[in-house]
Amino acid sequence: MIQNYQHIKSLLQESGLKTTPQRLAVLDYMIACKCHPNVDEVYQAVCAHVPDISKATVYKLLESFAQNGILSKMNSNDGKLKYDYIAEHHHHLYDVDNDEIKDYPNNELDEILKNYFKEKSIDGYVIEDIKLEIKVKKQINNK
Amino acid sequence: MIQNYQHIKSLLQESGLKTTPQRLAVLDYMIACKCHPNVDEVYQAVCAHVPDISKATVYKLLESFAQNGILSKMNSNDGKLKYDYIAEHHHHLYDVDNDEIKDYPNNELDEILKNYFKEKSIDGYVIEDIKLEIKVKKQINNK
DNA sequence: TTACCTGCAAATAGTTTGCAACCCT
DNA sequence: AGGGTTGCAAACTATTTGCAGGTAA
User: Residue A126: which of B129, B130, B136 has the nearest Cβ?
Assistant: First the structure.
């Protein structure tokens, strides 16, 4: 069952895309998973609900969602494209020891950056968005 | 001719890697190019100097340099691995209209972030490095 | 000399494409 | 009805692997 039917439907309409079972299933998964899946992971997950979806379709849908600003493409260090659903603005924590990536929302920091670039701009460019890529290690508990 | 022979040689020694013509050529290019090439671009460029280098070797070298902290892997939105030589700490400007990526060093900003996270840490993690991923558009000149 | 390194070619994996059939609106 | 959308299979591109031979230290 699709969790966010109405929400997804309006996302699609805003982008001028038709509502299809494949799009519903892919977006529903992206919204629910709260992770940063690559194409194959999305495909595997969606297969459970829409068994006959093809991987080529998943490629096409994810790409078009990214074009329409519904998802963003992410950098990953394994050479595979990853996608991220943008519910709220957030940064990313990259664990250097394994390949985990976690969301890190921080409004306070967003404000600081916004203010900083209000005064000092980057010449020749207009800033659209700023995301932090924070490399982290898990803390060892030695008290 | 290798521009930074001594420098590269010590980089390699610090990482316990033998000095080979292939490694010299690849690193020399990475240092000189000041860009963010993908594997094929490195291969093409290095071919001019070391004609019989194989692409498999380029893959292996870039990967091992990244493991040893000489290069960093980069996120790119085209599904190809890109590498970046780390001369000084810098951030990245991603042009949203084309696929250009530019370096953006900014010590002032590094200080601000460092101070911010001195007070407010991320629980469970130790921060290793912070990079900004700044999405930009070229400014239209309308005065 | 010896352990590390490289090139080759083949295998594997990831992504794109073209088109006929299908299905939202 | 009609144009956007999908699945398929094939093409294409990117990356990894194993191993024999080569080379830096």
Answer: B136
